[in-house]
Amino acid sequence: MDTQIGIAEQDREVIARQLSKLLADTYSLYLKTHSFHWNVTGPHFNSLHTMFETQYNELWLAADEVAERIRVLDVFAPGSYSQFGKLTTIQEESGVPDWKEMVTQLGTGHEIAAATSREVIKAADGAGDEGTMDMATGRLKAHEKTAWMLRSLLK
């Protein structure tokens, strides 16, 4: 059965490429946040440990939402570390920075994901894909809010 959702195949593929970048950013940010949850130390351990857990759980659910939107568009979603590594612009952290650097990196990561969400919205808007625009707008708002909260910790 052909996909007949009112969006041309070529447009669905363009949107799915942008969504794949958002999925890669989301998953990369999930991994980094989860690692920082495990490894945070310092005077703010309890609050950061708890906050990072809330954030990685939200990112885990978001990754599923983004991947399923790609599938709605009848395109296969990337799902390997190597694919995500090629698509994301979020820098991997292989060490264990101090808590301030963790907060800084996560704030930057959410800002990157917000910018990626904006690119998804632009691609979807051009094709009249309100479903993707709605989902990406929700992701944009979540990333902007989280980035603000993380930046506020450092002031």
TrEMBL record:
<comment type="similarity">
    <text>Belongs to the Dps family.</text>
</comment>
<dbReference type="InterPro" id="IPR008331">
    <property type="entry name" value="Ferritin_DPS_dom"/>
</dbReference>
<dbReference type="InterPro" id="IPR023188">
    <property type="entry name" value="DPS_DNA-bd_CS"/>
</dbReference>
<dbReference type="Pfam" id="PF00210">
    <property type="entry name" value="Ferritin"/>
</dbReference>
<dbReference type="InterPro" id="IPR002177">
    <property type="entry name" value="DPS_DNA-bd"/>
</dbReference>
<dbReference type="InterPro" id="IPR009078">
    <property type="entry name" value="Ferritin-like_SF"/>
</dbReference>
<protein>
    <submittedName>
        <fullName>DNA starvation/stationary phase protection protein</fullName>
    </submittedName>
</protein>
<dbReference type="InterPro" id="IPR012347">
    <property type="entry name" value="Ferritin-like"/>
</dbReference>
<feature type="domain" description="Ferritin/DPS">
    <location>
        <begin position="18"/>
        <end position="154"/>
    </location>
</feature>
